[in-house]
Structures are given as C-alpha cells and as structure tokens.
C-alpha cells in the first residue's frame, strides 16, 4: 500500500446549506475521528479569488485527506455518513486523487506527506502552498498577494486554482492543478508578480509556518462548474 492524498471540493447554493457547511468547520471534526486509514485531514473554507484571498467564499468548502491507501479513501467516500450528507447538500462536488512527489515545510508542526512519486515535465501536476501568517505581518501581506491571485487568470496551463484556508486572513492555502509541470514552472519562475511575492516573503518573513508540496494527480471524480472533471486536464 502507498499513501495517497485526496481533496474534495463542495459547492453549496442556498443560504441554509452554506450555513450548515460553515458550522461543519467546527462540528465536522467529531465525524472525522478514528477513520480507518486516515492519517491527516483538514476541513477548509475558501477564498473568493483564484489564490490567497481575504474575501471569503461561503459557497465552496473542501476536505483534504491523507490516506494509507486508495482503498481506505474509497471506503470512506462510499460509506461514511458525514461525507454522504455533505455530498447530498452540495449542488456540485469533485474529488482529486494524487500521489505526493515532493513536500517541504510543516503543517501544524508536522510534515504529513510521504513522497514516493516522480514528476514529469510534460505531465500534470498539483501544487499545494499553505502558510500561517504572522499577526504583525497581516497588513503588508494582504496588500501584495491579491495581485498574484489575479495574475493566475492569464495562464492557459492552469486547469484549476482555489484558495482555501482553516482560518480567514491568518491560515491560507492555494491548491492548483496544472496541465503540465512545464507550464506551472513557467508561471512560478517567469511571472513577475509571483516572483516579487516570493522575494518579499523571504525579506519580510511573513509566515510563522509554511508548506509547499507537489503531487501527481491521477484520478478525478465528480463535476465542477458543470463539467465532468474526468476530462479536467483535456480542456
């Protein structure tokens, strides 16, 4: 068996369903304890922009899970009552399955990803960036990152980017899926706005904890924005 990572996104439409999902950011933890094969998880809200955003999106939530094997994840998705209830309240949802290829940094003081896959320059890649922002740095951070989020919109190689987080403003993450690693690298190293934020991150020490990970996405299930995500990387 080899570790896999899954991330499920849920879209909720009505006020009552959005409110229910918001309450699960706290109440949902009770349903995720002692799940067989689940070694790490996060219930996440989302931002209103492509990447980091100070504006919340109360209509989109995510469940990130790290599993001992795909069979453990599949069993959870097929049988867990909490997951089924969340899915039934969602107008759309999709799950990406991925193998970790590399990871640096920590999340809540630990490095949860076991890297065992090899990236290819001409194959798809999923990127997770996560940071816990220092309270004293919040103003300078949020003045800069919006420009980077906006700059993502111009990249054809980007299949999806969603800003997520555990707490608004303070604990933020971006999950992005790219059609090829080459296109992701082109953005990361040639986009001037992105390069500026990387430089300022080192100079101003915005984060008290950060994590960067790359994955090979190998399976998609569900629908998003009216599209079957099995064809996600073909559009």
In which order are the strands of the major sheet placed?
1-3-2-6-7-5-8-4
Tell me the span between the first and last alpha carbons.
32 Å
* Number of domain modules: 1
Q: Largest sheet, if any?
A: 8 strands, antiparallel, barrel
For the record, the CATH class is Alpha Beta
The mean pLDDT is 86
| CATH fold-level assignment | Alpha-Beta Plaits
By DSSP, the count of extended strands is 9
Radius of gyration: 17 Å
Question: What is the number of helical segments per DSSP (H or I, 4+ residues)?
Answer: 6
CATH architecture grouping? 2-Layer Sandwich
Shape: globular
Reading the helices and strands in chain order gives EHEEHHEEHEEHHEE
Helix content: 25-40%
Stretches with pLDDT under 50, minimum 5 residues: none
- Strand residue content: 35-45%
| Overall SS class | alpha+beta
Summarize the SSE layout with pairings.
Layout lengths: L3 E8 L3 H13 L10 E10 L8 E12 L2 H10 L1 H9 L2 E14 L19 E9 L4 H14 L6 E10 L3 E8 L2 H10 L1 H13 L2 E18 L2 E2 L7
Antiparallel strand pairs: 1-3, 1-4, 2-3, 2-6, 4-8, 5-7, 5-8, 6-7, 8-9
Helix pairs in contact: 4-6
């Amino acid at each position: 068996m080899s570790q896999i990572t899954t991330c499920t996104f849920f879209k909720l439409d009505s006020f009552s369903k959005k409110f229910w999902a918001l309450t699960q950011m706290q109440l949902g933890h009770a349903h995720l304890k002692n799940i067989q094969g689940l070694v790490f998880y996060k219930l996440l809200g989302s931002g209103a922009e492509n990447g980091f955003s100070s504006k919340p999106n109360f209509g989109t939530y995510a469940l990130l899970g790290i599993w001992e094997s795909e069979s453990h994840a599949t069993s959870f998705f097929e049988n867990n009552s909490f997951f089924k209830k969340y899915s039934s309240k969602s107008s759309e949802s999709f799950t990406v399955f991925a193998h970790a290829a590399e990871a640096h940094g920590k999340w809540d003081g630990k490095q949860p990803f076991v890297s065992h896959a090899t990236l290819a320059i001409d194959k798809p890649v999923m990127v997770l960036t996560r940071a816990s922002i220092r309270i004293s740095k919040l103003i300078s951070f949020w003045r800069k990152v919006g420009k980077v989020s906006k700059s993502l919109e111009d990249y054809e190689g980007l299949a999806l980017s969603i800003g997520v987080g555990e707490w608004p403003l303070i604990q933020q993450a971006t999950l992005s899926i790219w059609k090829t690693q080459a296109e992701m690298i082109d953005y990361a190293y040639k986009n001037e706005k992105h390069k500026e934020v990387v430089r300022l991150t080192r100079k101003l020490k915005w984060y008290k904890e950060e994590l960067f990970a790359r994955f090979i996405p190998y399976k998609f299930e569900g629908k998003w924005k009216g599209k079957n995500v099995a064809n996600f990387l073909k559009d």
